[in-house]
């Protein structure tokens, strides 16, 4: 080696250049809707890590109602900048055609205790859920009727989700689950403010007593559709103000979700 100092300088220069490019990529360069580049994919993992640490540090009952401001506020500058850039994209550009509701958290929610299901690949916990009182009243009435008819009832896998929590799950699914593709992700998870789970009317994602939600391991929308509980919902849910939002080929650009029923007073 003739001039080790010069080699070191070149190496340092390359490192600095790479860092400048990486930071520019996060704060400024275009974001692909098809698949994030490797720096942005790294950012998604960092964002999920930060949220994971933050959510574990807060009381369990606060996780699904975290405010959008607190969700954003716990990130470092680069993470926050990237999150804000992603959520500044018009979801219509990603194929999502649903309505915008609000980025405010709904008040006066009823707490639904966590439930654990023993599944073949280990226990599954729903976490603590929430829903507005008027939705809870109709849900209870509906389950009483279902229990009378079928001797079974449906439990809550997910109900009200604050826009802050919606932001967290958007990024969780944007990772490996949906191949770091914003378009693919938008077919499953709404952006904060656009989810029925975050609206005043909320949506409920059901799970049956055997832990079948359609979203578990080796389960699909069809798995839930084949349940007698689903059949019962199709015939009776509207009497209790619940409606299937995303049937096959729905106009919202969202995949078929047999488990997702929204509350609406018609
Ligand atoms: Zn849902």
How would you characterize the overall build of this protein?
- The protein has nine helices and eight strands.
- It has helices at residues 4-27, 38-57, 68-73, 77-87, 133-150, 163-174, 182-186, 221-225, 228-236, and strands at 109-112, 116-119, 122-125, 129-132, 154-158, 203-208, 242-244, 260-263.
- The strands form three sheets. A four-stranded antiparallel beta sheet has the order 5-6-8-7, covered by helices on one side. The protein has a two-stranded antiparallel ribbon with strand order 1-4. A two-stranded antiparallel sheet has the order 2-3.
- A hairpin with a 2-residue loop joins β2 (116-119) and β3.
- The longest helix is centred in the first third of the chain and has 24 residues, at 4-27.
- The model has no long low-confidence stretch (mean pLDDT 95).
- It binds zinc ion.
- Zinc ion binds next to β6.
């Amino acid at each position: 080696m003739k001039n080790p100092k010069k080699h070191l300088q070149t190496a340092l220069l390359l490192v600095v250049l790479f860092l400048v490019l990486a930071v520019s990529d996060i704060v400024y360069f275009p974001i692909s809707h098809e698949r994030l580049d490797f720096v942005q994919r790294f950012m998604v993992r960092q964002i999920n890590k930060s949220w994971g640490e933050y959510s574990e540090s807060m009381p369990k009952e606060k996780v699904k109602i975290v405010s959008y401001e607190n969700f954003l506020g716990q990130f470092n500058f680069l993470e926050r900048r990237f999150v804000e850039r992603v959520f500044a994209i018009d979801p219509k550009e990603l194929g999502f055609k649903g309505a915008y509701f609000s980025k405010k958290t709904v008040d006066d929610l009823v707490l639904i205790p966590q439930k654990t299901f023993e599944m073949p690949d280990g226990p599954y916990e729903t976490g603590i859920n929430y829903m507005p009182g008027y939705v809870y009243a109709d849900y209870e009435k509906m389950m009483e009727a279902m229990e009378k008819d079928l001797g079974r009832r449906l439990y809550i896998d997910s109900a009200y989700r604050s826009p802050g929590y919606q932001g967290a799950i958007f990024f969780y699914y944007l990772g490996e689950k949906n191949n770091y593709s914003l378009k693919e992700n938008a077919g499953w998870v709404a952006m904060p403010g656009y989810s029925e789970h975050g609206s005043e009317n909320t949506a409920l994602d059901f799970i049956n007593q055997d832990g079948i939600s359609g979203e578990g391991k080796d389960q699909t929308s069809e798995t839930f559709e084949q349940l007698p509980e689903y059949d019962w919902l199709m015939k009776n849910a509207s009497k209790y103000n619940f409606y299937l939002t995303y049937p096959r080929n729905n106009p919202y650009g969202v995949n078929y979700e047999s488990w997702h029923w929204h509350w609406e007073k018609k």
